[in-house]
Structure formats: structure tokens, C-alpha cells
Amino acid sequence: MDWGTELWDQYDIIEKHTQSGLELVEKYVKFVKERTEIEQNYAKQLRNLSKKYNPKRSGKDEPECRLSSYQSFVDILNEMNDYAGQRELIAENMMMNICIDLTKYLQELKQERKTYLLDAKKAQQSLESTYKQLDSSKKRFEREWREAERAAQYAEKTDQDINATKADVEKAKQQAHMRAHVAEECKNDYAAQLQKYNKEKNQFYFSDMPLIFNKLQDLDERRVRKVAQGYILFSDTEKHVMPIIGKCLEGITKAGTNVDEKNDSLIVIEQNKSGFERPGDVEFEDYSQVINRASSDSSLGTPKGPMDVLGKNRNKNFWLFSKKSKLSTSTLPPFSTPPAPSPANGPNSPKFGRDPLSYCLKEINKTVKPRISSFRTLRRSPTVTEDFAHLPPEQRRKRLQQKLEDISKELQKEVDQSEALGKMKDVYEKNPQMGDPASLASQINQTSQNIERLRGELNKYETWVAEAGVRGDTLRYKSHTFNNNGAHDLLSPDGAHSDESTPDTSQAIYAEFDDDFEDEELTAPIGKCTAMYSFPGASEGTISMQEGEVLSVVEEDKGDGWTRVRRSNGDEGYIPTSYVTVSINK
């Protein structure tokens, strides 16, 4: 069934229906545009939200950043940022695949519909014109026929009139004959016009208009089909990004499961452990013995000097959360060193004079420092020193070790640069056209000075690290010096020339470990590790490995970037932690 057959007389209905269909497409395009705006605004707000709560670069070094709960929160913010990107992708695809495509197709449909309606209008106007010609010929035939009848009646009347002359009769007959001839021509013309009109009318109603209506029907059906595709795209556009959105949500779930409260507690302990010993019990201070001793030379107990009384105060009232207003200022900090006690049963010191109690109190007021109120006040205004002596022992150890690693890395960089300058100088000496060797003298001298300065700092911090009791292995680097010819020689750490032959300069200079493996009982493995990359193990203390090789972990990374491992044949050594995936036994 088609419109040309069933709706041949419903031109106005068809015109209105097709116009309504085009308006529906426009309405749907506007709907999708507003949806894309909502998605874009949503994505923008999500990005701003993630940016607002994401830590600034300056805050990424805060101690809290190492906590798993904090890292998981950062992971959630990153996943939300990716999620916002997917919402933007939805908006972009909807705009491209639905809005722009439908808008372009809508313009084509409008132009096509306009053409069909113009064709129908032209056919209608042609039929109306033919009808006007038919009506005109019909009226002319009617008029001429009446005139011919009147002329025939007049000729007959004149012929019967006895008073009429023969000439009048002939004239009337000729007039009647002429009128009859004209009427006959008008009749033939009318018949021809009628036949033409009927033919065009049949053409109009049975061919032209049905064809136009069928074309409009095809246009409308294509429009409906295109809109249906737009409806499907509205859903498919979001379905296509659902897997990625699902991964974002899985990432958020994974961030939640990665939170390890026990590990966070250990990190807090590691970051804030002071290394101090807990304060001891408060001792009983018997001031009566001092008074009795002042009044009598005889004493029932062991005589106590003023410094003995002062020494007893060193462990008194070490409060963690007290306020300043409630604290006494007559006690020593917990880490003060007690003075040497007076000899037991020894004689009175001549410093006591006649009033030993007054002298004792005076000495206490002069020598005893005000007690630190709490750990908070200890942190408020520390005197920062180069050896980090202002920090608690455990924190000092970690800071010194970190500083030592930083200096070692900087020293290695300077060593590499000095080696490169030496090679460049050798090339210039062999090929003068490439450059002047003397132009590198200032850079070589500056690099040598930097190496000497860094070696000095390295030795200084190694001494402090040894004092702080740092565990693990310390990286020591061999630095390069240059002779007068520009060739670089290896120096041992103490500055003397090494007897070893000069190694191949094309190989990387590796750090050497101080401790040597001694013949001792093998330590039980604490886990396994799998090599992600191959490692040559060229330097002393290291061990080579191949990609995919499984090794036993003997000692975890102590923060220096190296892990101690063992092969099944008993070979042990250090490997870079970043080259393997480690699994520790629980």
C-alpha cells in the first residue's frame, strides 16, 4: 500500500504529516544537543572536583602521601578524572554521530520535500490552466451557438415575410449559414479542449500526483529510519564507553581494597619513631637527708651532694600531652646525661659552707634547664643542623641515609660527565679539526672540583651515618681525575692510584658495595622475585639475571634501590629492585 493509491486526494494531509516529521527530527537534534551540554558540564565539574582534591606538587612530599589510604584516594581522583574523560567522549560522539549527521540529513530532506511539493504545485497549476481553457471554449461555443440559432430564426422569418425582398432573404440566409459555421468551429474547439483536459486530469490523478505522493512517502520512511538509527546511536554511544567506565569503577574498587591499615600503621611508626627510651620511674628525693647532713656531721644514709640530687631529676615527669601552665621547670629533659655521683660516705664538699641546703637549691636553679613541655614544643622551633642532630635518632638515621643516597647519585652524575669530557678531549686531540682540547679545560677543572667536593660530603655523611647506626650497604663511587694529557685515571676512595687496569670506558660505571659475602650460614629466603629485565651484574657485589628468571629474596630493599637475592645453586648478590617483581612470604 502506498500513498499515491490510498491517499490520492489527501494532499494537505500528506504535506502536514511530512512537515511534522521534519519538526520531530529537529526536536530530537535539540534534545541530543542539550544532553551533550549536560555531559560536558558534568565532565567539567568532575574534572574540577578531582583537581580540587588532588594534592598539589608541593604537598606530594608530605609524610601522609605514603599511606595506602591516601594513595588510594589519589587513585580514586585519577579514576574520576578518567571517568570524566569518558563522559566528554560520550558528548563528543553524540554531537558528531547524531547532531551533526542528523542536521545535515535534515537539510537534505527539506530540500527534497520542497522539490516534490513544487512539482505537485506545477501539476496542479497546469491542470487548472487547462480547465480554464476548457471553460473558455465552452462559453464561446455556447455563445456562438445561440447566435447561430438567432440567425437561423431571423433568416426563416425573413423568408416567410412577403414584404421582404429577395436580396434580404439571401442576406439573412448567408448570415445564418455563417453563424452556424462559426458555432460548429466553436463546438469542435470545445470538444478538443474537453478531450485535452480529461487527458491531463487523468494524468494528474493517476500518474503525476501518485508519483509525487509515493516519493514523499519514501522520503518520510527514510526520515523515520534515520531517526530510529539516531535513537539507537543515543544508546550505543554510551554502551561503547561502558567497558572503560567499568574499568574506572573497578579501579575505584581496587583502590579501596588496596588500603592496608596495618601497613599504614607501620609507615606512621617508621616516619615518626623517635628512637628515645621511655622515661624511667620517678625516684624518691629525700630532702631531709640534706637538712640532717647540714645540721650534723653524722648521717644515717649515704651522703648526697647537690649534683646527686640534680641527677635524680633527669627522669622526672616526662609528660607527652601536658600543658605548659601545669609543668614544673625544675626537671631535666629525658635525654640529659646524669652527672657522676659523689663518692659514697665521702666528706662534705667545702662548697656547701655553713648553709648546704641554700647552696643546693641555688645550684639546682643555676644548672637545671626548664623541662620540655611536650613533643609538640620540641618540633615547633628546632635548630636545624647539617647532620640532622635536631631530629630524633630514628628520623635522623633515615634523613642521613637519604642525603647520602642523593649525594651518591649526584657524584655518579659528575663522574659520568667527567668521563664524557675526557672522551671528548681525547677525540679533539686526535682530530683537531673537530675542536680545541683547551676549550674543555675549564669544564674538566670544574667537574673535578665538583667530584672532590661531593667526595668530601660523601665521606662526611658516611661518618654521620656510621654514628647514627645505619644498617645496610653504602654505595661508594670511584671518581675520575685527569692528568695533564686529558686522560682520566681511576682513584681509589682514599685518593691513591688503583693498581687495577683501566676498565672499558664504554661500559657504565656501577656502584660497588662495601660488604663482602663471607662464608656464613645461608639465610632462609623471605620471598621470591621474578626478573622483568635482564641485568648484567658487572659490578662487585651484584649478580646477573635474565628476563623471566625466578630468584629467592634473602634481604628486602633497605631504601637504597637494591635487593639481595640467591640462586638455586647458592650464588648470592644484589640486583636493582626496579628490575624485578617481588613477592614476600607472609
UniProtKB/TrEMBL annotation:
Region feature Disordered, mapped onto this chain: 329-356
**GO molecular function term, any single one:** lipid binding
Superkingdom of the organism of origin: Eukaryota
User: What Gene3D superfamilies does this protein map onto?
Assistant: 6.10.140.470, Arfaptin homology (AH) domain/BAR domain (1.20.1270.60), SH3 Domains (2.30.30.40)
Question: What GO terms describe the biological role, i.e. biological process, of this protein?
Answer: endocytosis
Chief location of this protein within or outside the cell: membrane
> Where does the REM-1 domain lie?
390-467
Q: Where is the F-BAR domain?
A: 1-264
Which residue intervals define the domain SH3 in the entry?
524-585
Q: Name one Pfam family in it.
A: FCH
Regions of biased composition (Pro residues) lie at 335-344
Q: Which PROSITE patterns match?
A: F_BAR, REM_1, SH3
**Which GO cellular component terms, listed alphabetically, does the Swiss-Prot or TrEMBL entry include?**
cell cortex; cytoskeleton; lysosome; plasma membrane
Which terms are listed as keywords in the entry?
Cell membrane, Coiled coil, Cytoplasm, Cytoskeleton, Endocytosis, Lipid-binding, Lysosome, Membrane, SH3 domain
Which ranges of the sequence are coiled-coil? Answer: 106-203
Tell me its family. Answer: Belongs to the FNBP1 family.
Q: What is the name of this protein?
A: Cdc42-interacting protein 4 homolog
